[in-house]
Amino acid sequence: MLSTDLADLKAYMADNPGAVIEDVARERKVTPRAVIEALPSSMVRVGGGEHFAAAMQDIAAWGEVTLIVHTDDAIFEFTGAVPAGEVGRGYFNLMQPKGLHGHLRHERCAALAFVERPFMGKTSAFVAFVNADGGIMFKVFVGRDETRALRADQLVRFRQLADRVAA
């Protein structure tokens, strides 16, 4: 990316921190990772993808969260507890027979981005699992309480995880 394009993207994200990351990436012909990294530094911390399994195990203890997979064709949202998992046969396997389960290509995770920013008039906090191509594998959002505020206990866990992974 040219330095002028990067400066323009950073200025755009500073003015529009709640913009949909995938939409900005598509419109500007950059990766979602570039968009995340263009957010003001106070809103994002990035750590290495080698922390994938440890991050997923930590998130499994948070309780009800929202996991989002955003593709060009759909936005899938799952609200509930992320199950514990383990690495086996080349995948990080979510160990639950019903609800959210599956096999994640953890070795393709190049980074974990911890993002706290305004979105649709509210503060949001999520972990973006970023793949080797700069795309977002999925995002895990800190849950909300009955007043629609971020759950304080999860926000503490989110920040502690960011401190460990993106030190």
UniProtKB/TrEMBL annotation:
Signal peptide: none annotated. It comes from the Bacteria. It holds the Pfam family ChuX_HutX. CDD domains: ChuX_HutX-like (cd16829). SUPFAM superfamilies: Heme iron utilization protein-like. Gene3D superfamilies: HemS/ChuS/ChuX like domains. This is Heme utilization cystosolic carrier protein HutX. The gene is hutX.
